[in-house]
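User: Sequence in, structure out. Go.
Assistant: Echoing your sequence, followed by the structure tokens.
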Amino acid sequence: MADDTGRTVAQALADARADGIDRLDAQLLLAHRLGRPRTWLLSHDTDALPAAIDAAFAADCRARADAVPLAYLTGQHEFHGLLLEVTPDVLDPRPDTETLVDWALAVLAGRPADAPPPRVIDLGTGSGAIALALRHGWPAAEVWALDASPAALAVAQRNARRLGLPVRFAASDWWAQCPPGRFHLVVSNPPYIAGDDPHLPALRHEPRIALTPEGDGLAALRQIVAGAPPRLHAGGWLLLEHSHDQAGDVAALLQASGFDHIQHRPDLAGHLRCTGGRWPG
């Protein structure tokens, strides 16, 4: 084989599989490096890879084997039908978080037909996944997205511009710099993993501050619930994502703060992943 070419497509993918890389992940990584759709690989498996592409793909595979999220290597992830830019400054959006979006859209759909356009706020927006999905699914809503990380806000703002979705952004540590006025819907997927959770090492490439508030994992959830009542319209909803074993704790926080109609929603695996309540009125 010539010095300026690497392995064939088939050889590179086979080597990736031998190194423990998931077949689909390997295909997506190689297609991304080549700037081709994944289907192109199937009909060009005997093509030799340019040496630079081959080397970059090999580096991607080493990173993936070290648990670097696929989205960080390709720079993108689809969420609720939207293709988002994703960087190591933000969490890699999970499919289970679509449960929260679906519930929020159902709440908006349940509002009276003559109700004013809803004001919605997403606390800790990260890549903007939740806020952008809600603005896309409910174009009449005024959607705010807050995050304490300037780098995360920059990613979310780029996503909003590229997708043409007018979401309003603000730098805020939870409620600290919340825009004035009340909201009809508050949503959040805050850090909720306990600081000593054994799964955290496997997530080491994602921003720890977005994964865990340390301690028992409930600190951010407590802060959001405690600060929500004066920011909600009567009849407004607060919907929260949490760990698979925190549904009871979050329900208790909501009840203690005066919320009613407290409910849960399961994730794709059937675990209670989201808990929410309505502010009375």
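User: And one key feature?
Assistant: Residues 51-65 form the longest helix (15 residues).
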